[in-house]
Amino acid sequence: MFYRRSKYTDGADGREMGAKRQRIIDQGPSFYGNSPGSSFMYTAPPPYSYVSQPPCFPVVRLRGLPFDCTEVDVAEFFHGLDIVDVLFVHKNGKFSGEAFCVLGYPLQVDFALQKNRQNMGRRYVEVFRSKRQEYYKAIANEVADARGGSPRRNASRAKSSDEAKETAEHTGILRLRGLPFSAGKDDIIDFFKDFVLSEDAIHIVLNSEGRPNGEAFVEFANAEDSKAAMAKDRMTLGSRYIELFPSFPEEMVDAISSGRPNSNDPSDPLELGFPEP
Fold this sequence. Notes:
With 277 residues, the protein is α+β, with helices and mostly antiparallel strands. The protein has eight helices and twelve strands.
C-alpha cells in the first residue's frame, strides 16, 4: 500500500490528517524519489533539507473544466504526472466546472501549472496553486451536500436509477464506480467486510496506460450475496461515495480487457508510478 511513515504537511502546520483520503495523506521517506511512471525528471534534495520547512501538500485547483469531464480526462490532461486523486466540486448538486487534483510529489505542482490555460477539448482550463486546507474543505462540502440531499430533478433521477438497480438481475457480480485511484484490493475487501472475498474475486479496471480508472468488479460467492451487498451502495470508501451496479460476466470481461490485465495489486506504489520505499 502507500507509504505509512510520515505525513504531508502544509506550511508550519504539522498536525496529522484525519481519516479522509488516508491513502493520499500517508507518505514515506522516498517522497522526492524519481517516478518511473512520469516523463519528467526529478532531482532528490539533500537529506534533511526540509526539516525547518516541511514540503507543501501537492494539490492544484482547476477551473473551466468541461461539464462532462471525468477523472480520466484530468489524468490525460496532466499526462506524465502522477495523479493521486481528483475531486470534482459541485454546487447545488451540479458540477461547477472546478476540481482539485492531488499529485504524487510537491515538485510536480510546477509542471502542472505549466498546463494553465491549455485546452481540454474545446475549453481552456485554468490551473492554480492550492492548499491542503482548501482541498479538505472541498471534501467536507461534497460530503455535506451528498448527505443533505440534491435538487428535485437529481433526486428523481436517483430514484429512477435505484428502481433499475432493484429490478436488475443478479449474477453474483457487482460493478463499483467512483473508487479513489489509490484504492487497492484490500480496501475493497474491507468495504465488503461482511462478505467472504478473496483477492482473486476483485478486478480493478485499468486504463490503456495500466492505471486504475476508478472502477472495479467484484465476484461474490452467489447472486444472493451480491444482492445483499447492494446495501453498501453510495456508502463511503475513505471519503468517496461508491456507486454499485449489478453486472454480468461479459461486461466485466470487456471492461478488464480494455486495459492492461490487473495481475498486481494497484495499491502497490510501483503499480501507481511511485518510487519504491
